[in-house]
Amino acid sequence: MTQENISGASPSLSRLVQELNRLPGIGPKSAQRLAYYIIRLPDDDAYALADAVTSVKQNIVFCEECQNLTDASPCQVCSNPDRDRTTICVVEDPLDVLAMERTRSYRGLYHVLHGVISPINGIGPDQLKLKELFNRLTRDDVAEMVVATNPTLEGEATAMYIRRHQSRDNIKITHLARGLPVGGSLEYTDETTLTRAFQGRQEI
Amino acid sequence: MAPPKTYRCEGIILSYKPLGEADLLVTMFTRYQGKVHAVGKGARRSTSKLMGHLEPLTAVNLSLAHGRSMDIISQAEVINSFSTLKEDLTGITKGQYLAEMVDGFGAESSPNPSLFQLMVDTLRVIEAAPESEMALRYFEYHLLQVSGLMPELYHCVECREELEPDAHRFSPNVGGTLCLACSPEDAHLRPLSLRALKVLRLLDRSQLAEACKLSINGTLSNELKSLLSTTVSYWLGKEIRSNSFLEHLRNETPPEVYI
After folding, report:
1. What is the pTM of this model?
2. Domain A85-198 has what CATH class?
3. pLDDT at B170 over 60
4. Average of per-residue pLDDT across A178-199
C-alpha cells in the first residue's frame, strides 16, 4: 500500500513516496521511511540532494570512446595519455569500471556495454553498446581485448557473442580467470567453479 | 502438529534477479512443488556458499525455509550444471527458451513432474547436440501435452471425422487440426501440410531420443517451428522473448573465430 492510499496524506508527500518507491530495492515501507527522513532533513541538505539528482540528469553523458558515464566526453580514463591504448577491458556496467580501478593493477582502457544479452528479458545485442565496441576494434590499434563480463550465464553468453562477432584476426581475446574467491571455501564451491579453478592452477 | 519449517526439493533454476544489496530472487521449477520463488540471502557476494549453485539452467537439490512472504534458500547442491551446454551460445539460448516456456506454463503449488523430467531430458539432448531443432519441437509439443493442451492430430476437431492423408488446417484456438470441409471463423487458422502432420504424429508417439534422429528439410522445419511456437505463445498469451534472439542466431553466419 502506498501513501496515496492513506487518507489525509499530503499530495506532495504522496508524490515523493511514489517516486522513491520506483527505485530498485525500495518497497512502499522503505519509501515512506525515506520520505519522512527527507522531510526532517535541514533545508540545505534536502536541496543539495535534489540538486544532485537534477545535476546528474543534466550533465552526465556517454563517453564517445568507452561509453562510460561521464561529465565530459572523452572521460578521464580515455583522455589520460598514460593509459595503455592497446588494451580494452569490456565490462557490463559503469560500476564494474570503478571495481576494476580500485585494483590499481589495470592501466588499459575500458568499454562499457551497459548490460548483457538476456534473451529471456528481451535484451538483444542491439540494446547494448556492442556496435560501438566493434567500431572501436576496427578503428583503433587494439592488441588485446579483455572480456570482463560477469561469470554468469548471461555474462558468458555476451562474451561468446562478442568473440563470435568481432571481425579482427590479429587481436588477442581473453577473459578474467575463473576460480575461488579470496575468503571462499572449497566445501561450498560449486563443481563448475572448482573445475575451472583446478584447470587454472598455478605453480607456487 | 505444526507444519515443518524447512523442506527439501529438487529443481531447475529458471532465472533470477537481484534483490536488495546482495540477495537474489530465484525462480525455479521443482519436481514435486511446481514453480517456486525463493530468496538466496547474500547469494551475490563472492564468498556466499550459494554462489554458483543458483545459475539459470542448473539442476539443484535445495533446502528451503518457509518465510513470511517468500521462502529462503538455506542450502544448495548442484546435481547437474549442464556445463557443456553453457559453453555454446546457441545451447544457452535454447536452454533459456525452454526456461521461459516452463516459467510461463509452470504454476506455483502445482506439481508437474512430467514437465520437470521433460525439461531435464531436453536440456541433456541440447547439451549433446546444440544445433538440434527437433529437440525444441519435441519439447514444445510435449509441453502442451503435459499441460493438458495437447492438440488433436487424428480427427477433425469440428466434425470429428477421421483425418484423411491430405493437407489440412490447424488452429490452437479450436484445439488442433481441421479438415478442409470445416471452416469456422477463426483468426488463428493456418494451413497444415500432410508432412508436417506426420511429423507432429511422430512427435506424439515417439521418445525424445528417437524423435531427435529425424532429419527434416528447411521448409518443413520452418512450418513446424512456426506452428508449435505460435501455439505455445497462444496458450501463454504472450510472445516468447528468447525466440527472437534464437532466430537472430539461426539467421546469422558467424565469422571465423580467432583467439
Report:
1. 0.87
2. alpha beta
3. yes
4. 88
> Across chain B, what does the average pLDDT equal?
90
Q: Is A86 in contact with A107 (CB distance < 8 Å)?
A: no
User: Span B85-251: which CATH code?
Assistant: 1.20.1440.120
Pick from B92, B257, B258: CB nearest A153: B92
Region A100-116 average pLDDT:
95
DSSP-derived secondary structure for B1-19: -PPPSEEEEEEEEEEEEEE
pLDDT tens digit sequence for A73-84: 999 999 999 999
Contacts of A85 (CB under 8 A, 6+ apart): A108, A109, A140, A141
**Intrachain domains A3-59 and A85-198 with the same fold:** no
The CATH number assigned to the domain with range B6-80 reads 2.40.50.140
Q: Which position has the higher pLDDT, B1 or A17? A: A17
Residues of A in contact with B89 (CB under 8 A): 157, 160-161, 164
Which residues 135-174 of A have a C-beta within 8 angstroms of B?
A: 152-153, 156-157, 160-161, 163-165, 167-173
Phi and psi at residue A197, to the nearest 5°: -65, -40
Q: Which CATH number fits domain A3-59: 1.10.510.10, 3.55.50.30, 3.60.20.40, 1.10.8.420?
A: 1.10.8.420
